[in-house]
Each structure stands twice: as C-alpha cells, then as structure tokens.
C-alpha cells in the first residue's frame, strides 16, 4: 500500500514537470555524450521579480522552484553531478533582508524537498565556506548531508558562500601547511593533488557550465574547475529556465568538439 502510494507520488511529480514528448526527447539526448557534471550560475531572480513589480525576494522564491524542476531534469537525464551557484562570497554585499532571506532558503528546501531527493537517491552536498554561514543555514546543510548520505545517485551540490578566489587561497594555505609539517614535499604538488584541496574534491570538473539572465561572465565561479568546460549562456532569467532550455543546452553541448588543446 505504502509502496503504491510512493509510486503514485513519483509518477505524479513526473507528470507535473514532464510533457508529452519529453521521454522521447530525453531518449535521443541520452544516446549522445552526456555531461557528467553540469554547473549552473542561477542568475536573474531579482530582475524577474522587478519586471513583475515584486520585491527581489519573490524572485528568489520563484528561483527555488526552478531548482526543484531542474534537479529533476538533471536526474532524469542521468547526469552524475549538478552544482548550483546559490550564494557567492560577494553576495554578502546585498541588503541585509535579502541576505537573510537567501540564508533561510536551505531550511525551507530541506523541509519541502528532502523526501523527494531521498526517493531519487540524490546525495546533497555543499561547496563553499560553511563555517561563515549562520547557524540555522549550517544546520539545514547538515540536515541535507545527513539525510542523503547513503544515497548513491546524482550528487547535487549547492555552491553557498562560494568564491573561487577564496577557494584557491584556502587550498594554497592548506597545501603550505602540509608541506611545512612534512606531510608531503613541494614536488608532490601536482594538478591532481591541487584538485584534492578544493571544495570540489569529490567532483569531476564541470563538462558544461550554464548561466542564465544574459550576463556573459563567470562571477568568481569555479575558476580552476572551468578550465576546459563548455560554456552555455541564455538570456532567460533563472525563474524562467525550463526543461526545454536545459535540453537545448545539452543538445548544443553534444555538438561541440572538445579538443583540450589537441587537434
Ligand atoms: C540570483 O539572481 C542569484 C543569487 C545571487 C541568489 P540575482 O539575485 O543575482 O538576480 P539579478 O541578477 O539581480 O536579476
Ligand atoms: C552570481 O550572480 C552569483 C550567483 C548566481 C549566486 P551575481 O548576480 O552575484 O553576479 P554579478 O554580480 O552579476 O556578477
Ligand atoms: Mg545577478
């Protein structure tokens, strides 16, 4: 009985986001090379709200719904890792109310979405400086990590209080510590080792990076990891980013020729 109810719920949620033709579209995409790791700069929430005469936080609320939908699409496509840039180290410069609102979203998302994430076998993690977050935000992140730690499917990472420059400095400091304490020698510092000191140590480099809202910049996101990522930009604002656009991004990705400097 419970099993049937669960299946019905999963089916219901699928119907909510998938339209006729989506299965077929995904089958075609799945035949091509699928990015293992997709990273997204979720931008344009504020402008989405402003266009409607709403406060910026209404845009963040709408953006959270997109997070839910896009996570489902990524999972349905069989992507191994999805990383969502949610709050940068520079976003502390925003008005206090907006920052507080954003810091409350993980708790809300935990309440509303943990069950589905567990059902989907998704493991949730965070990249960024956790120690500087407010306690209630840290608790929500820990709740996600704890609640999904046994899951073996897609890794969903929230880049929260994330800044690539700060990440690189942090990694460098830890490497210096390990060299000074004799744990390793200077010659041991390779690209592969450096990777292990980043917040993304458990993740492959993003194959595809998507940014919404028409801005064509990186905004301090994964400067090291994006070295050979394919970049894809859309003018659509994050709350309007759709399943269809995600398919388009994957389709474009599959048409690109990744050469890594070779011919
Ligand atoms: C969301 O979009 C990104 C976050 C920092 C949460 P913005 O809040 O930057 O929206 P715009 O760019 O001002 O429209
Ligand atoms: C990048 O967006 C950070 C996030 C999406 C979390 P911003 O809106 O902060 O970037 P800029 O200020 O336009 O470069
Ligand atoms: Mg922005």
UniProtKB/TrEMBL annotation:
Among its keywords, does the record have Oxidoreductase? no
> Under which EC number(s) is this enzyme classified?
2.5.1.-
How the cofactor binds, per note? Binds 2 magnesium ions per subunit.
SUPFAM superfamilies per the UniProt record, alphabetical: Undecaprenyl diphosphate synthase
Say if the entry is tagged with keyword Transferase. yes
Q: Which GO terms describe its biological process?
A: polyprenol biosynthetic process
| Known cofactor(s) | Mg(2+)
Q: Which residues does UniProt mark as catalytic?
A: 43, 91 (proton acceptor)
Q: Which UniProt keywords apply?
A: Magnesium, Metal-binding, Transferase
Please give the Pfam families that the UniProt record associates with this protein: Prenyltransf
How is this protein annotated for GO cellular component?
cytosol
What does the record list as coiled-coil region(s)?
none
- State the InterPro entries in the record: UPP_synth-like, UPP_synth-like_CS, UPP_synth-like_sf
Annotated binding of Mg(2+), by residue: 43, 230
Q: Which GO terms describe its molecular function?
A: ditrans,polycis-undecaprenyl-diphosphate synthase [(2E,6E)-farnesyl-diphosphate specific] activity; magnesium ion binding; manganese ion binding
Q: Where does substrate bind?
A: 44-48, 56, 60, 88-90, 92, 94, 211, 217-219
Functional note? Catalyzes the condensation of isopentenyl diphosphate (IPP) with allylic pyrophosphates generating different type of terpenoids.
Its quaternary organisation is: Homodimer.
By sequence similarity, the record places it as follows:
Belongs to the UPP synthase family.
Q: Which NCBIfam families match?
A: PRK14830.1, uppS
State the name under which the record lists this protein.
Isoprenyl transferase
Q: Organism, per UniProt?
A: Marininema halotolerans
């Amino acid at each position: 009985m419970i099993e049937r109810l669960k299946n019905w719920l999963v089916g219901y949620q699928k119907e909510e986001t998938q339209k006729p033709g989506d299965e077929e579209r995904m089958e075609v995409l799945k035949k091509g090379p699928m990015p293992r790791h997709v990273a997204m700069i979720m931008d344009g929430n504020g402008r989405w709200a402003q266009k409607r005469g709403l406060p910026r936080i209404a845009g963040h609320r709408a953006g959270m719904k997109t997070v839910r939908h896009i996570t489902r699409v990524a999972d349905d496509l069989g992507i191994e890792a999805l990383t969502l840039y949610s709050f940068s180290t520079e976003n502390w410069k925003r008005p206090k109310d907006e920052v507080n609102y954003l810091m409350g979203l993980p708790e809300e998302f935990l309440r509303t979405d943990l069950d589905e994430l567990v059902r989907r076998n998704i493991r949730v993690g965070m990249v960024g400086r956790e120690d500087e977050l407010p306690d209630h935000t840290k608790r929500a992140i820990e709740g996600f990590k704890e609640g999904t730690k046994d899951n073996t499917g897609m890794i969903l990472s929230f880049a929260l209080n994330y800044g690539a420059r700060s990440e690189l400095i942090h990694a460098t400091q830890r490497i210096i510590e390990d060299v000074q304490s004799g744990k390793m020698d200077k010659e041991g510092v390779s690209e592969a080792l450096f990777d292990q000191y980043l917040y993304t140590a458990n993740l492959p480099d993003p194959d595809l990076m998507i940014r919404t809202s028409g801005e064509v910049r990186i905004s301090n996101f994964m400067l090291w990891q994006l070295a050979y990522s394919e970049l894809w930009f859309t003018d659509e604002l994050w709350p309007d980013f759709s399943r269809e656009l995600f398919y388009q991004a994957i389709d474009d990705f599959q048409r690109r020729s990744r050469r890594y400097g070779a011919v």
